[in-house]
Amino acid sequence: QQPVQSPQAVILREGEDAVINCSSSKALYSVHWYRQKHGEAPVFLMILLKGGEQKGHEKISASFNEKKQQSSLYLTASQLSYSGTYFCGSHNTDKLIFGTGTRLQVFP
Amino acid sequence: EAQVTQNPRYLITVTGKKLTVTCSQNMNHEYMSWYRQDPGLGLRQIYYSMNVEVTDKGDVPEGYKVSRKEKRNFPLILESPSPNQTSLYFCASSFIRESGELFFGEGSRLTVL
Predict the structure, then answer these.
(1) Which residues 6+ apart lie within 8 Å of B90 measured at CB?
(2) Which one of B31, B36, B43 would you mutate to disrupt binding with A, by most A Cβ within 10 Å of its Cβ?
(3) C-alpha to C-alpha distances, A17 to A6, A14, A20, A70, A104, nearest whole angstrom
(4) Which of B38, B49, B102 to mutate to test the interface with A (most CBs of A within 10 A)?
(5) Set of chain B residues whose Cβ sits within 8 Å of the Cβ of A44
(6) In tens digits, what is the pLDDT along chain A, a chain of 108 residues?
(7) N or C: which end of chain B has fewer CB within 10 A?
């Protein structure tokens, strides 16, 4: 079952914060986060494996709730380079299934 | 340099003309997968492989075939392409472990007329 991402799109000014959510009706085995810039391949950001886990990567961090049904990606003090489409992915047995994506645009 | 290489990067073909998109990785990854990306639908998995000679269907396998005769290669075959297979295709690979991040190829944009 495909994870549901919200919002579908976000427009920000440089320096503003954003939160992208990824949820599922069933517990997720793990959550991957990827960013895809326009015309490029998706690039791995981070993976969360355990309920309650939080992880950070520079000014981008993520959390995985205790029930493992929701993950959130936090982008703080956004930069122009953060623009792109963000995907969450979750394992379903051997498959890695991605959400439909959240398009983030950061303007000066 | 660690990479996933896809060819061709761009292809325009006609309905019914068999084609193969090649994918090769140099990281000794066990896991390889094909995705197609369409506007508003995100990345949908076509086929995946856990190791040599082990392949399985993803969510949208109809109209596609794959093979995994060698660990490094995972070609995607369209036996009789149709216009609804016009899409952007990505090959990806990873180690099979809990923290295995997916490495993506640069993508192959296919147009079927």
Answers:
(1) A41, A42, B6, B34, B35, B36, B37, B43, B104, B105, B107, B108
(2) B43
(3) 15, 9, 10, 19, 11
(4) B102
(5) 101-103
(6) 788 999 999 999 999 999 999 998 887 888 999 999 998 999 999 999 888 888 887 799 999 987 878 999 999 999 999 999 999 998 766 778 899 899 999 999
(7) N
